[in-house]
Amino acid sequence: MTYTNMLDKSRDALVMQASRFANFLAHHGARRPGVASALLLGTGLAVGIGGGIVGNLSLRAQVEQQQAQIEATRADAQREINALAARLGELQAEANRLNALGERLTRIGQLQDGEFDFNKPVGVGGTGEVEDMPKAELDSGLAQLGAQFKASGEQLSVLESLLFNRQLDMNSVPSREPIDSYITSNYGGRADPIRGGRAFHKGIDFEADVGDPVMAVADGVVSFSGRRSGYGNTIEIDHGNGYVTRYAHNSRLERKVGSLVRAGQEIAKAGSTGRSTGAHVHFEVWKNGAAVNPKQFLQQQSPLRG
After folding, report:
1. How far lies 241's CA from each of 188, 213, 219, in Å?
2. 245 burial level (CB within 10 Å; 0-12, 13-18, 19+)
């Protein structure tokens, strides 16, 4: 039974009782005026008490109805908050991914320290009055932010791939000396150190002691490891893109054909094997099958490096 039904039933019962008292008084009031007065007074009290009960029930029903509405509103608000919290979590995850990708690009691009600090809050400001933001506007702003995050992530991923491929290409280009030393003989025409007369020197020579480490000048694969006429113990590395480097007159070879080497890794020990007057490192660079001046590649800096 609902509160409305209870109120209607109580009201009907009071009206019926009042009607009965009125009929009784009309019939007996003239003969017994004292009793009639007492009954009239009692009837008034009963009606008053009944009215108070009905009013109390009505007020209680209104309060309970309002509480139910408040609970329903609170539940709706909590659902909205939960939805916003879930969306916020998605955006935070996307922001973390973009930060990690940005930091990786910073390292690949060799950007200077502090130029892009992804852990530093961005400075913002503004003036004017602040108003409450409608939920529809907030939802729209979150949707736009999510779309911007997605587009930025896709662009940064493409940029990362391009930079990574470019870095691989640069790592396969000769860009350092094969030994930490100085040049004793340059590329080009010179007097032959053994027979005299004019000869063309296809590489450059670095001063070295027997046993000094000889390093690869770029990433690549060993394409030759053994003795060559005039060169003695020789290692050749194919770097791709038409580049091959040659390291000659070594006392010992430390890489076999097919070995993958990285720039700066030791590949041999310096010596004086082959046609040589003393310990040194003979270094050549070949481009598309022709010897070129290695000096143009020494200490060459990648555009991606600082």
Report:
1. 24, 26, 12
2. buried
| 244-290 per-position pLDDT tens digit | 999 999 999 999 999 999 999 999 999 999 999 999 999 999 999 99
H or E element at residue 97: helix 33-108
3-class secondary-structure state, position 181: coil
Long-range interactions of 84-87: CB distance < 8 A, separation 24+: 84/138, 84/142, 87/142, 87/146
What the chain holds in terms of domains, given with CATH numbers, is 1-111+142-171 (no CATH), 183-291 (2.70.70.10)
pLDDT at 206 over 70: yes
Type of residue at 242: G
- In angstroms, rounded to a whole number, what is the distance separating the alpha carbons of residues 217 and 100? 31
Q: In this predicted model, what pLDDT tens digit does every residue of 63-75 receive, in sequence order?
A: 888 888 888 888 8
